[in-house]
Design brief:
Length: about 325
């Protein structure tokens, strides 16, 4: 190691050399001070004088609807207090008239709604009562029928109730009652249209001995062979109104009857049967119910899907409608 001493300053890098060449920073300007010291420009637009504003004629902006009614066309705005009072009175009258119209409309609509509700409630109560007791229809229904007393020449409930319901559907109110007819000189199983018509007429004539006025209805079932080996059962409803000289006949829906059953009935009828001219001695319902294992009044429903009462009710409605047309 020699005795020479090293310089305290070290060699400068290139970055330091570049930074050393930069000039010192200058003082930043103060914008706040300049803005405060800046002289204000004089206002070029003079302020409007208040007296000038009030002296000028300014119109108050009014709302102008795009669509005006016919009554509002060519109407000037009120400028004086008297006109304003008249306008206010007119507006009040229009408001009162509109309120009255609205009240009348609400009153009319509410009354109709209440009447509809009351009518539905009454119908509901009537339906319940008539379901529990069918005889109540004669009392509840307000409609009237000139000949309210309709007599059925039978005491079978299935016949009397069907005729009653059919007439009440057409006339609204009809008192229908059953009256037993005497034994008729006809076969137990009627065969043919002619035999059925004679049997119903006989029943009506028998009831006429006790019922002089009003319509009398009779019902009989019969079988007929319109085509060879094709047998059908029908029901005949006959109505007679002797006062008005009205005679009507309506038939129920046909029910097919097996030819074998008719053959058995024919074979079991004695040859010396006193009513053999009008039919057989054994009803078809007896054999049909025995073979189908049902009640004699239910075999038609098993064969066709339509019950005996349903077909009888449809015929009763048709008979009542025919009678109503004849009365007119």
């Amino acid at each position: 190691m020699d005795g020479s001493t090293t310089s305290p300053t070290r060699k400068m890098s290139k970055a330091d050399q570049l930074l050393s060449k930069l000039p010192p920073p200058t003082q930043l300007p103060s914008f706040v001070t300049d803005a405060l010291n800046e002289p204000r420009a004089t206002q070029s637009n003079p302020v409007l004088n208040t007296t000038d504003v009030t002296s000028q004629n300014f119109h108050t902006p009014m709302f102008s609807p795009v669509i005006t009614s016919k009554n509002e066309e060519n109407v000037e705005l009120p400028t004086s207090p008297s006109n304003e009072a008249v306008a206010d009175k007119t507006v009040k009258n229009e408001q009162s008239s509109s309120k009255a119209d609205l009240f009348n409309w609400m009153k009319g609509s509410s009354s109709s709604i209440f009447s509809m509700v009351a009518e539905k409630a009454k119908n509901s109560v009537d339906a319940v009562l008539t379901t529990l007791d069918p005889q109540m229809k004669d009392t509840l229904n307000p409609n009237t029928f000139d000949n309210t007393d309709v007599v059925v020449a039978s005491e079978k409930e299935i016949v009397v109730s069907a005729v009653r319901e059919g007439f009440q559907k057409v006339f609204g109110k009809a008192v229908v009652r059953g009256l037993e007819a005497p034994d008729q000189p006809f076969a137990a199983q009627l065969v043919g249209f002619s035999a059925a018509s004679k049997a119903t007429k006989y029943c009506i004539d028998s009831v006429r001995l006790h019922v002089v006025k009003g319509p009398v209805v009779s019902f009989e079932r019969f079988i007929v062979e319109p085509i060879e080996s094709k047998w059908y059962e029908f029901g005949l409803l006959k109505l007679n109104d002797m006062e008005r000289n009205i005679d009507l006949e309506v038939y129920t829906q046909s029910v097919p009857v097996p030819a074998a059953i008719v053959g058995l009935i024919s074979d079991d009828t004695p040859k010396d049967y006193e009513h053999i001219s009008t039919g057989f001695s054994i009803p078809v319902a007896h054999f049909m119910a025995s073979n189908l294992k049902v009640h004699p009044s239910e075999w038609q429903e098993v064969m066709t899907g339509v019950s005996q009462r349903s077909s009888l009710l449809a015929a009763s409605v048709s008979l009542a409608m025919s009678y109503k047309i004849a009365l007119e």
